[in-house]
Amino acid sequence: MSVLSVRNLEAFYGAIKALRGVSIDVEQGEIVAILGANGAGKTTLMKTIAGLMDPGKGSITFLGEEIAGVDPARLVARGISLVPEGREVFPYLTVEENLRLGAFTRKGGAQDDLDLVYGYFPILQERRRQAAGFLSGGQQQMLAIGRGLMARPKLMMLDEPSLGLSPLLTTEIFEIIARLNAEQGVTMLLVEQNAHIALETAHKGYVLEMGRIMMSGPTERLKASEDIQEFYLGRTEATERGQKRWKRRKTWR
Ligand SMILES: Nc1ncnc2c1ncn2[C@@H]1O[C@H](COP(=O)(O)OP(=O)(O)OP(=O)(O)O)[C@@H](O)[C@H]1O
């Protein structure tokens, strides 16, 4: 059974159709990456799955149950954790208070989870009594991921974990994402503009363009694709011919 199965999902901002029939599947234990340029609809997809936006049409099945339209707090309790773009930690609360908030849906057990988070992010333990607003960008990203983990998610969704981070920190964050997946078995759906690192880390990927999935498959296959190399990995010059080909193709294999 898929952890997450999205079928023909549409989402609107007023009259603007931001998702135009998106279908994706996330299996147990997978890291799945959604790639796409600015404005492709990546954040909209995450928000709609997390219950923060109403789906116009289509279905979202989580562990076999329909969740389209379910309240976001209920979805957290059922095992969906969203680490939002821009991190959104509570700046006046301490690091540890931010982490404990991540466990708000559960009674007890939070200390074990804190120990787990501190094991992956020792810097958060060092700074646990400091206000989160004083952390660097990378540390805030770690805190946001740690807070998401505190809910013991069955599916963790990460929106642009590399946003605003240096290449070195981005590598560090993605290494931890891969370890959490391998060691804790956390299933992950991540949105990322940095196609290099997303394709290195994920098992499977989807390319979203203008609200539609244009290409999908195992990351090994995506990396080998000429179009992905040309338009997302920047390995060759985007020739005029290439651009025309991109526009002409509606669906790819
Ligand atoms: N609040 C909003 N009101 C109106 N249109 C919006 C709003 N938010 C997003 N859009 C539009 O919806 C489309 C998808 O936006 P979305 O933020 O999901 O893209 P994205 O792929 O996440 O891009 P980015 O990488 O810039 O975050 C875009 O055309 C965008 O202009």
Automatic annotation (TrEMBL):
UniProt KW Transport keyword: yes
Gene3D superfamilies per the UniProt record, alphabetical: P-loop containing nucleotide triphosphate hydrolases
Coiled coil regions in record: none
Molecular function terms from GO: ATP binding; ATP hydrolysis activity; branched-chain amino acid transmembrane transporter activity
Entries under PROSITE patterns matching the protein: ABC_TRANSPORTER_1 (PS00211), ABC_TRANSPORTER_2 (PS50893)
InterPro entries documented for this protein: AAA+_ATPase (IPR003593), ABC_transporter-like_ATP-bd (IPR003439), ABC_transporter-like_CS (IPR017871), BCAA_Transport_ATP-bd_LivF (IPR052156), P-loop_NTPase (IPR027417)
Keywords tagged on the record: Amino-acid transport, ATP-binding, Nucleotide-binding, Transport
Keyword Nucleotide-binding: yes
Signal peptide annotation: none
Biological process per Gene Ontology, one example term: L-amino acid transport
Domain spans labelled ABC transporter: 4-235
Protein family per UniProt: Belongs to the ABC transporter superfamily.
Protein name per Swiss-Prot or TrEMBL: ABC transporter ATP-binding protein
Species of origin: Seohaeicola zhoushanensis
